[in-house]
């Protein structure tokens, strides 16, 4: 059945229309609490994955947990779900809420003979395997950043709400013997921003449609008090991670205050000469994000607020260039984790980033009416272009060199970017690989990468995109939403390197949302210019027959559709808000 993504429609599969849920969510809700944009919806489980007893002795009426109720305990509730424990049987159950969410759990208990609070062990999981795991061990389940494995007490004829993490699955176990506990409900307390999806993307390829929406939802979940990298971990403002997230926010939600709030936090937390997050490239990403923000939204007063720090940072960066025009940046020299042990790739990527950063700096100085600084930073960019790193064979660094015009796009695409398909990809730098492929005009190839790489996560049960993904790990791996047999690998628990070993691996990481921004810009063809005052429509449908969607601009929502006609030409229809200059 064809999925339709409608502009300003927030609900696709939800039992009630109040409160509204993000359009990817399939679930029921009964109530909400609101503070400004941040709201809380209570969701019932979608299915029971596992229970320790199916005889009806220690677990009774389990199906009632899947029914949407009123959220209020009563003295005369009947036929409630029951946990009955003995010395030899302490029952447990595993619930699936259908989609990855951010928040906690509310458990309500009915009336029973004992008034002693009921002790329950809760285990949250982004995968079934994580929810069924113990802390530590080879598969590295942790309580770092957010608690996901702990014991609570549920009051007699009352409720308790606990937890603040990223999860889809919840395992609940009774810890003590001799319990007979009637449970009214076990609901997810889903915390998110109640904001409309102004941008949309729909085509004749449902896989691409789902990928676009999953990327949007991944970033949406990370738009908490600040713009986080992940909702389970690290729950921090990592500035480099923000760049793909900001491009997705520009595409889906428009100009949102969580971006400037997070950028300002990073600036204030890292006074010069500190590098942001201790990483020199992340300070450069801060500058590049500001350039993108101005390009899309044209907020001159906000750019002016950043001028002193920008100039200081650019001048600091200029001291890390040697006599051969080669970057010699100190601090943590980092692009992404897969390249972190390849110094030649790191240098190539940092050299390219230095070029892009000084070009962006020059452009921003022009906007700020600082011609002397514009000339200064353009000259530094030209110096840096004279050094062209060699020996790099990674897709990530090659992509940055293409974007900085240090490497020919066509040659890099054929020799590096498309080599071995989507092997040695990166969820973070995948966005820049796609950007470089677009520069080489390889739109069909880029669409294949999106379908195979990001689609590969969907095939494994993903409802948000992951911190890291190696396509070779698919072999003999079970999906994240099923119990894993002994003959299969656990895609979540059995793989990973660096910070994402085993279950510590974040399965909702905003830096992996790149296809959302890329599809809207390059396939739907919406290219924002002149501080958001102008949009150039230049579609590249590749192997698609039609595509349509919307895009938030400073003047309102722009709607565009493209169809391949019988003669092979593209027929375009545009519905533009008043005041927006649209060119084709």
Radius of gyration: 25 Å
Pick out the low-confidence regions: 1-18
Write down the domain tally: 2
**What's the number of helices?**
13
CATH fold assignment of the largest domain: Glycosyltransferase
- Strand content is 15-25%
Largest sheet: 10 strands, antiparallel
Q: Kindly, what is the distance between the CA atoms of the first and last residues, rounded to a whole number of angstroms?
A: 33 Å
CATH architecture assignment name of the largest domain: Alpha/alpha barrel
Mean pLDDT: 94
Q: What is the helix content? A: 25-40%
The CATH class designation of the largest domain is: Mainly Alpha
Overall body shape: elongated
Q: Structural class, please? A: alpha+beta
Tally of extended strands? Answer: 21
Q: Could you walk me through the main structural features you see in this protein, from its secondary elements to its overall organization?
A:
The structure is a single chain. This protein has 584 residues and is of the alpha+beta class. It is 31% helix and 23% strand. The protein has helices at 128-131, 206-222, 239-252, 257-269, 280-297, 300-318, 343-367, 371-385, 395-403, 409-417, 430-439, 443-459, 514-523; strands spanning 13-14, 26-27, 29-35, 38-43, 47-51, 59-60, 81-84, 92-109, 118-125, 149-154, 158-174, 180-193, 200-203, 477-478, 489-490, 526-529, 534-537, 546-553, 556-564, 570-575, 581-583. The strands form five sheets. Strands 3, 4, 5, 6, 7, 8, 9, 10, 11 and 12 form a ten-stranded antiparallel sheet that branches. The chain has a four-stranded antiparallel sheet with strand order 13-18-19-20. A three-stranded mixed sheet has the order 16-17-21. The radius of gyration is 25 Å and the shape is elongated. The chain starts with 12 loop residues before the first strand and ends with a strand.
